[in-house]
Design goal:
Rossmann fold; 10 helices; 226 residues
Length: 226
Amino acid sequence: MRVVIYLRVSTAAQGRSGLGLEAQRAAVDTFCRQRGCEVLAEFVEIESGKRDDRPELAKALREADITGATLLVAKMDRLSRSVRFLATLQDSGVRFVAADMPEANEMTVHILAAVAQAERKAIGTRTREALAAAKARGARLGNPNGAAALRRAGKGNSAAIEALRETADSHAAKLAWDIAVLRQEGRTSLRELAEGLNAKHRLTPRGGKWHASSVRNLLARLEARQ
C-alpha cells in the first residue's frame, strides 16, 4: 500500500513541543510496518479540527489523488469532526484510512456521509447508462483520445462525451502545477516530462504510466483551457 501521511495538532504549542505529533507518528509508523506501506509524503498541520479550510490537508489530498495513494491518519478525529467535511472527503474519491480503526473506517464514513454517497452513486449510474447507450450505438469506448475520438466518429450521445471530457479536463488541471515545476527544472521534451511525472508517481487518467504521446495529449488539453 502506498500512503500519504497527514498529521494534525490543534495548537501551536503542541506543534513546537512535538507533543501529539510524536504519538501520531508512532501510530502511523506501526501501521506502516504491519501493512508494508510505502510512504510517498508527509504533511503536518497546526489547526483546529473545527475548521475545514486546512492548506496542508488540501496538499495531502492532492498528493494522494494524483499518485493513487491512500491518505493515512493516526486517528479519525485528526481529519475532522465535521460530517459535511467527511462527506466531501469521501466524495472526492481519495482513499483514506485511520491507523486506530482501519477496518471500521469505511463503514463509519459511509454512515456519516450517507446522503452524499447516495447522490454520487446516482451520478455514477447515469454516467454508466450514458456510456452504455454510446456503446450500443457503435461508439468505441476506451479510446486513448477519449472524447475527441467520439466527436470525430460522430457517435455516442452528448452525456457520454461530456462525462469523458470533464474527467480528462479535471485530471489535466490537477497536473498543471507539476508540469510547470518540471519545466522550471529544465525538463522540456515530452519524454523528459513523462519521466518526471512517473518519478513523482503521477498517474494517467487511466491509472497507468506516462509516455511521450500521453504527455502530448495532456499539454494540448492544458493549452486549450488557457
